[in-house]
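Hey, can you fold this one?
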Amino acid sequence: MHVVGIKFALPFAVLLFTTSLFAEEKPPYIWIASKGSPRSISILVHGLNEKPSTMDSIGKILEGRGSEVLRVALTGHRGDRGTFAKVTRTRWLKDLKAAYDVAEARAANLHLPLYYVGFSLGALLGLDLLTSSNKVHYDKMVLFAPPIETRIPRWFVRCVGSVFGPNFEIHSFGSKERRAHRATPVAAYLAAVNSMSNLEKNGLSRANIPTLVVIDPDDEVVKYSKILSVIKQYQLKNWQVLEVNHRHTLLPSIWYHGVQNEPALGMTEWAKVSLHIQALVD
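Sure. Predicted structure:
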């Protein structure tokens, strides 16, 4: 009896181990079909410790305007907490480049424009990838609260990493429906600040393409003034800033950084955002 049990239990244990080990080896994206014949291809990327599905409200706007959407799930945001604590900027850019290659090939094959749409971390990484490689090109962008610079200085995040280590977790106060995990490891914050530093080093000259920036000036994470200053510094004349407010948020408490869906902004502000997105991608 015991021998038989071991005989069948061992392969099962190996299966569980290998399944866990390679849980995030699946392609970090899914396709969302457009309504009718596609007129564009869009890459859609979520924020830090946000479920990729939180971007579905934007995805519906895009697909409604004839865009095939490639919704990306970055490493650490696909259900496995273990990889979240080991994530790096390089790992995330690798995720994003893999998705970009698929979307770009699809766009080229159909002779369609390629758009990039990202919220927070997703917006930052999209800019980082664009400014780091001459082989990356988007025709248009929609950037929701892009953390080109944050209110918490980068040196402080690196100091926390040095003292507590990259595995140290900081509790996330977002709703269970929205967050990917209950806490965010310092490693993820370090990856994000490294992306900010690289963006600062490369500059934004290559990003002067038709772009809609959606942000609340009272954003508690992103320095709104920094966005305005880089637009002026790099003469980003193709960038349009859409200021929104949270007076009619549907959430229990105001989260000024959250500008990527209707619950965060309320019906009136979200309708305004929707119209601006439609105008850009049409």
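The domain at 27-281 is CATH 3.40.50.1820 (Rossmann fold). Let me know if you want another pass with a different chain boundary.
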